[in-house]
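debug: dumping io for the single-chain case to check the tokenizer round-trip. Nothing else runs in this session.
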Amino acid sequence: GEALASGCEKPLGQPTTMAASAKEAKRFTEAEVKELLATPEAYKKFLKKRCGECGAQGFKVKYGGTSPLVVRAQLSSFWCASCGRLLCAQHRSHHTCETRDAKLAAERRMSGDEIRAAAKREEDERIAGEERAKAAKRAVDEAKAAKRALWKDRRKHAAGQSTHIAEFVKRLALQAPDAASTRLRDELLELYTKCNRLNLRLWNEVDAPTDGLLFDRESWHDLKTHYDRACELTGMICTVEGAPIDLSADWDPAATVQESGEDSGT
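debug: decoded output
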């Protein structure tokens, strides 16, 4: 077909009736357009869309070699927020737009003062909308920050408990009775080595958890397993301020869902 300078392509012998095409054109909300740019499969569908004014296909010619992320940042260059049409470059600024036409028709019937008052109302509504959007984003950011702080405190608490356990197992290994078998001493020393390594890992995880985890449940589980084994071998338990160490919590990592990205507990 003949390629237009705008990137639209019309098959030869198939003239387009613009008025009919514009009237029948599908309308898209901003969320729907962004959804078309969200995944590779959806992006392929976007590239096949037709101009909402002339009905020609031009998006593949213009955006076929462009990343969806780049195209998403150029939303206003091919989508009209007023009428919802997807538009080729030729018709982005000159197309049928019922909302704009109705506004112009109404303004022709208004006095200068009424036009200025209407413009002020629109500006006030725009500013109010921006403030609402900022407030909503601020609320989301604050909720995320609170969640990060909560899980950081939990990781710090668990790391502190792991230090008590590592020191406890170390004392068991160093203070084993002279009559204790070499095998028992060796196992206690091995348990201490493992507990100490896990203790270091849990402390490292406090400020910078790896792999997008809110909590390193595997290391925590291993630590408790080694502690249980040391207690089994010696019949002793770790105490903190005169009370048995408490390794239970209502946020037990066994029930924790792993999360990643901007929602991680960093």
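debug: round-trip ok. The longest helix spans residues 112-174.
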